[in-house]
Amino acid sequence: MKAMILAAGRGERLRPLTDETPKPLIKVAGKSLIEYHLENLAHAGFRDIIINTAWLAEKIHQQLGDGASYGVSIRYSDEGTALETAGGIIKALPLLGDDPFVVVNGDTWCDYDFSKLPELKPGKQAHLLLVDNPDHNPAGDFALENGLIRKTGSTMYTFSGIGIYTPAFFANQPEGALPLAPIIRSKSDNDMVSGEYHLGRWTDVGTVERLDKLEMSLTS
């Protein structure tokens, strides 16, 4: 199975750190965010990695190269101008192939073991990893009901940015900038999206405060 790491965003809320450093290359506990993902994916047996880039793309290329030093093979999907989550995945579909693939947000930190990702069940086009709601997203994103993603429910969770998708999930979607959440909600209405709850550690490193908090938790 191939994996895609989303690394095209500008990181406005992390400025001025991201003025000269792309957000996935921001370091925490001595290692860049994207390196944690590369090492975790490699440890789980993933070898073919696609990374989309836009803001300061050349620095990501220079830092990660072809991936050999991480035990993987990296190919890049350069966007020029960031295409949002779904738009970036759609542009990279020719690199991702015909089989299901994993997508990981490059600006998060998570202790999830990627080797535990399940195979998609028949009739399912995606599988999402959900986590407890952080302070900055108290209302959550989706509910989980009998292993299926729902738009609402008695208990809401936050989407971790880690998921499995089939190419069919993105069929008939327009090219260009496109968010992912509306597609998930539409597909969930037809029971096409399964999910699981991750009890472990996860951080959306979207602000300097969250970055500092993660640094403390990893070094203390």
Explained architecture:
The chain is built from 5 helices and 13 strands. It has helices spanning 33-43, 57-64, 84-96, 181-188, 208-219, and strands at 2-6, 27-28, 31-32, 48-53, 73-78, 101-105, 108-110, 126-131, 142-145, 148-150, 156-165, 193-197, 202-204. The longest helix is centred in the middle third of the chain and has 13 residues, at 84-96. Strand 4, helix 2 (57-64) and strand 5 form a beta-alpha-beta unit. The protein is α/β, with parallel strands linked by helices and 220 residues long. It has a single domain (2-219), classed as Alpha-Beta Complex (Spore Coat Polysaccharide Biosynthesis Protein SpsA, Chain A).
Mean pLDDT: 95
How many strand units?
13
Question: How many strands, what sense, and barrel or not for the largest sheet?
Answer: 9 strands, mixed
Structural class computed from helices and strand pairing: alpha/beta
Query: Kindly, what is the distance between the CA atoms of the first and last residues, rounded to a whole number of angstroms?
Result: 35 Å
**In the CATH scheme, what's the topology name?**
Spore Coat Polysaccharide Biosynthesis Protein SpsA, Chain A
Radius of gyration over all CA atoms, rounded: 16 Å
Number of helices: 5
Write the CATH homologous superfamily. Spore Coat Polysaccharide Biosynthesis Protein SpsA, Chain A
Sketch the topology as an H/E string, one letter per element: EEEHEHEHEEEEEEHEEH
CATH class: Alpha Beta
Tell me which CATH architecture applies here: Alpha-Beta Complex
In what range is the share of β-strand residues?
25-35%
Q: Quick one: overall form? A: globular
Overall tally of domains: 1
Question: What share of residues is helical?
Answer: 10-25%
Low-confidence stretches: none
